[in-house]
Specification:
Layout: E1 5-7, E2 11-16, E3 23-30, E4 37-41, E5 44-47, E6 53-55, E7 61-63, E8 68-69, H1 73-82, E9 87-92, H2 104-110, E10 114-116, E11 123-124, E12 129-132, E13 137-142, E14 147-154, E15 160-166, H3 173-176, E16 183-185, H4 186-194, E17 207-209, H5 223-236, E18 243-250, H6 253-272
Parallel strand pairs: 4-9, 11-18, 14-18, 16-17
Antiparallel strand pairs: 1-10, 2-3, 3-9, 4-5, 6-7, 7-8, 12-13, 13-18, 14-15
Length: about 270
């Protein structure tokens, strides 16, 4: 994740949107060096930065004045892992395809279309930055390296307590986090659909947590915590540059991931001024 790359050709992914249930397509093209990552839908274009987030209910949603795109976090985690910070993303449909519910298809589809490029300067903290409430928190600490740790707790379910950690410099995102799938509790599924969410969810693209087990065999140990850590990596891609910090998250979710990114950018800008 510390190595920077640029796309050498166009890459396309197509499939169902997990929340909309509609067929969606995302096309990634090489961006201009130093130009950052931009997303476009129906002629409207916005930067892939925390300030473009318009919603964080069960997924991260970016948008402009007229249009929006949901469920960007899995794709963004793959881009962060591969060190791609300059690209053009064109979306048809209102969502990034869920594919198999993990980031692995994005990593596999992109990694053969890359060449090394100059890395953007990392964001370096000189003080702790924290967001959250009594139940959920994310803390970013100054550090000489980048690392992530995610803890979650679902009492009275097969998940129980889980934690996952990831050090980009020493571990493979493709092996450790990318295979971990999105998940939902069985008792939540009908509520999600009543809220207009999870209409494209199926056992092919999500792991359902049952009263006494899981809807399919786990791909990796601590799969739920690893997936949440994957989401954290994807949401912090919205900083626009790599982050050099020790990040600790407890039952956080997209809302607090994005709030942390906004607070980091705000405090760094204030310190620079």
């Amino acid at each position: 994740m510390n190595n920077a790359n640029r796309l050498t050709q166009e890459v396309t992914f197509s499939g169902v949107g997990v929340h909309s249930g509609e067929t969606c397509q995302v096309r990634l093209r090489p961006g201009s060096p130093g130009g950052g990552c931009w997303m476009e839908r129906e002629g409207e274009r916005w930067p892939c930065l925390a300030g473009s987030v318009v919603e964080v209910e069960r997924c991260t949603v970016l948008g402009g004045e007229r249009t929006r795109v949901s469920t960007v976090e899995h794709l963004f985690s793959a881009l962060a892992a591969l060190g791609v910070y300059d690209c053009e993303i064109q979306v048809q449909g209102g969502e990034i395809p869920i594919l198999d519910g993990s980031a692995l298809p994005f990593v596999e589809g992109l990694k053969s279309c890359l060449e090394p490029t100059q890395a953007p300067e990392p964001l370096i903290l000189n003080q702790p930055i924290w967001v959250g409430n009594e139940q959920s928190q994310v803390l970013a600490l100054p550090s000489t390296i980048c690392s992530y740790q995610y803890s979650l707790y679902y009492p009275r379910t097969p998940i129980g307590y889980q934690e996952a950690s990831f050090e980009p410099l020493n571990e493979s995102f493709e092996q450790k986090l990318a295979p971990a799938r999105t998940f939902a509790l069985e008792r939540e599924v009908e509520w999600l659909r009543a809220q207009g969410l999870a209409r494209g969810g199926s056992l092919d693209n999500a792991l359902v947590v049952l009263a006494d087990g899981f809807s399919s065999p786990l791909r990796v140990e601590q799969e739920m915590a690893r997936h949440k850590c994957l989401d954290l990596v994807g949401d912090l891609y919205l900083l626009g540059r790599p982050l050099q910090a020790r990040v600790l998250a407890v039952k956080a979710g997209h809302r607090w991931h994005v709030e942390l990114a906004k607070k980091i950018l705000r405090e760094l800008a204030e310190n620079a001024g």
